[in-house]
Design brief:
One of its GO terms (molecular function) is oxidoreductase activity. The chain has about 475 residues and is of the alpha/beta class. It contains 14 helices and 20 strands. The chain is globular and about 60 Å long.
Length: about 475
């Protein structure tokens, strides 16, 4: 049985059904996909479609359960720095080094290539020892000690910021590297240096887009579930994980119906599992601080906007002030802004653009996103920030839709709307194996972490551990 029809839950269901298991999925929302959300709006101008969650597909080789047609994105990201410099990332290491040389300096390119060699070692170590295996305790990391070179590459105890300053003299490259910590919901000043594997994966294997939006991945997984005979029930909330002694025995749905199962897989935030579904004070206390959340604007924009790539990041003059605000539970007045505009006729009317605008934000709680005027006021501020950075679309907006951390909390039952559960300020995420026999956790709040490929790996690792039906 699977609780939650996010990408992790659906992937686990597919893998186990293929292994001969009879699988049932219960999803509290009215549709599948979890944080891989979608929004559509029909206007007199036509239909606008948006991904409201992930907007970039990486490591396409891990999505083996469905037939996808990923389209490469080049540049993967256009970085616009406070001084106006632009740097376009790509999946060819030599070409990217050349772009760094042209946009920044030959010295910056040499620094980046040195860091790249270090990142390759971290990636190789992470892939072999961490990402492709279930990890149940910190003791598992001591396998790395068998190869001192691997342990030195991962550098336990060193932060991503420290690694950045040790390799990169140009503050713009350091600014770019810092951004990858937020991909794991973490502050780069506290995030482990091992997160340098994130930019390596993106820039070594490329960034990809699915026509019609990344939400089509959820559709493909749901279709595969149906083909394999998986029972997927939407609009059915699980209230409790049941136990018989030290073993998970099934679930109780909201309303009181009990459903027995030999194995339970929770594709839910680990905090929700250990606070609500299977109260476990000790595991709950070990989860650490919540990850950052996101504040999103969905904009229908008239006309076409020059200078934007598929993904464009606009950096602030003082990134540390942004981190201080977001991780201190406040609104950032001058944040990093990500703008995603897909050149895909399937997501916007001719002559218009569908904009996804994202800024890092504190979760619901430290900031009361439901308070009158907070969300609208911050939306106005973000549009003003974009205007200050040279992209003013305020007179071309057909409509705007706001998504706050409080909305994500309500829609996905993620506490506070934290995107990644707990912030990745430690090398290990919460374990995939639960405190009961036959209970497993998958998804972005657990090992090996957030993001579509890692969520998919978590599901595959758990399915492999459960094994084929007897």
């Amino acid at each position: 049985m699977v609780i939650g029809a996010g990408v992790g839950g659906l992937t686990a269901a597919v893998r186990l059904a293929r292994a001969g298991h009879r699988v049932t999925v219960f999803e509290q929302a009215g549709s599948v996909g979890g944080k891989l959300g979608r929004y559509s709006r029909r206007t007199p101008e036509g239909l606008f479609r948006f991904d409201t969650g992930p907007g970039l597909l990486t490591l396409p080789q891990v999505f083996t359960d469905v037939d996808l047609d990923p389209q490469p994105v080049d540049p993967i990201v256009r970085h616009v720095f406070p001084d106006g410099t632009r740097l376009d990332s790509c999946a060819d290491p030599d070409e990217f080094a050349a772009r760094v040389r042209t946009a920044l300096s030959p010295a910056a390119a040499r620094d980046w290539q040195r860091l790249w060699r270090r990142a390759a070692r971290v990636w190789d170590t992470s892939w072999r020892h961490v990402l492709t295996a279930t990890v149940d305790s910190p003791l598992a990391l001591y396998r790395l000690a068998w190869r001192i070179r691997d342990l030195a590459a991962v550098a336990p105890g060193r932060s991503l910021r420290s690694l950045s300053r040790g390799y990169l003299a140009d503050p713009r490259l350091r600014m770019m590297l810092d951004r990858y910590a937020t991909y794991a919901g973490a502050d780069p000043r506290r995030a482990p240096a091992a997160l340098v594997a994130i930019p390596y994966a993106e820039l070594a294997f490329g960034g990809w887009y699915l026509r019609g939006g990344l939400g089509t991945l959820a559709d493909a997984l749901a279709t595969r579930c149906l083909e394999l005979g998986v029972d997927v029930h939407t609009g059915r909330r699980v209230a409790r994980i049941d136990r018989a002694g030290n073993r998970a025995s099934g679930v109780t749905l909201a309303g009181g119906r009990t459903v027995p199962a030999e194995v339970v897989i929770a594709n839910a935030d680990a905090r929700t599992v250990y606070r609500d579904l299977l109260p476990h004070p000790r595991r709950l206390s070990r989860l650490g601080a919540a990850s950052l959340a996101g504040f999103v604007l969905l904009l229908g924009v008239r006309g076409r906007t020059p200078g934007l790539a598929h993904h464009t990041v606009f950096f602030p003059a003082d990134p540390d002030a942004e981190f201080d605000a977001v991780f201190g539970g406040r609104l950032a007045g001058d944040p990093t802004v990500l703008v995603t505009v897909a050149d895909d006729p399937a997501v916007r009317p001719a002559g218009y653009e569908s904009w996804f605008v994202l800024v890092n934000a504190a979760p619901q709680g430290p900031v009361d996103w439901r308070a009158a005027g907070v969300a609208d006021g911050y939306a106005d501020r973000i549009l003003a920030v974009l205007a200050e950075r040279g992209v003013d679309v305020r007179d071309r907006i057909v409509f705007r839709e706001i998504r706050t951390p409080a909305d994500l909390e309500a829609g996905t039952l993620s506490p506070g709307g934290s995107i990644y559960g707990t912030a990745a300020h430690r090398l290990l995420r919460p374990a995939n194996r639960g405190p009961l026999a036959g209970l497993y956790l998958v998804g972005g709040s657990t090992h090996p972490g957030g993001g579509l490929p890692l969520v998919t790996l978590s599901a595959g690792n758990v399915a492999d551990r459960i094994g084929p039906a007897r």
